[in-house]
């Protein structure tokens, strides 16, 4: 392996931390220190770098990049890489969302990795309208990103909290959520277009086509976690060439409710990586 190159066994993790300041105190720092991942993406950081401890802003052994939201205390995404990036991009060119802390793209040798926090939405409110505008602008960018990557001989992984459950097997209580944001027919159709029109692959579902789950988010309300009444909304969505190299995927679900440091769990995928020639 040459200097600045990725390992032949490539491990990538993504997790919505639900507030990095709280997660850092409850176990994220220890999880990151113990991780064997080569790339880690975080969402819903909800803090600027100046508000975070050094072991989160610049942990030993990592190149860390953060994109905060212009509205303090909201959104925020991060990417940690073992290899120094060739390029870092905040946003995807849509003015409304450039400073929203929802998209951070890092270019590595032969691989583009992006941390995505897609708006959660709320039916009948401006939040849902924002989500719809984001989706409308983001799909063409995904097509463009894949095209540029292919031309450069690179692969792409867009990972994070997509805030959409694509199919009935992707959430426990799908019948009662058919009119709720995250499982609306038009949202599910849009995510289907990411796979069909843009040509990306949901790696976890490729490796485990049947389901149900495995879920990555459980509400803090009631007994959702204990009853595994969750949603599979944290995804690694990748180009076909990278999907073919996926070896395993696992959700790092906490052993107990008390052991959680977020209402989401990390999704970790291992790939057999062949560096570009």
From TrEMBL:
Gene Ontology molecular function: double-stranded DNA 3'-5' DNA exonuclease activity; metal ion binding
Q: Which GO terms describe its biological process?
A: DNA repair
Q: Which domain of life is it from?
A: Bacteria
* Annotated site residue numbers, Transition state stabilizer: 163
Q: Sorted alphabetically, which PANTHER family does this protein's record hold?
A: EXODEOXYRIBONUCLEASE III
Q: Which residues form the active site?
A: 117, 161 (proton donor/acceptor), 264 (proton acceptor)
Site (described: Interaction with DNA substrate): 264
Residue span(s) of domain Endonuclease/exonuclease/phosphatase: 14-264
| Important for catalytic activity, annotated site positions | 234
Q: Which InterPro entries match?
A: AP_endonuc_1, Endo/exonu/phosph_ase_sf, Endo/exonuclease/phosphatase, ExoIII-like
Cofactor: binding details:
Probably binds two magnesium or manganese ions per subunit.
Among the Pfam families in the record, one is Exo_endo_phos
What family does the database annotate? Answer: Belongs to the DNA repair enzymes AP/ExoA family.
**Keywords, alphabetical:** Hydrolase, Magnesium, Manganese, Metal-binding
Q: Which organism is it from?
A: Amycolatopsis sacchari
This protein's name: Exodeoxyribonuclease-3
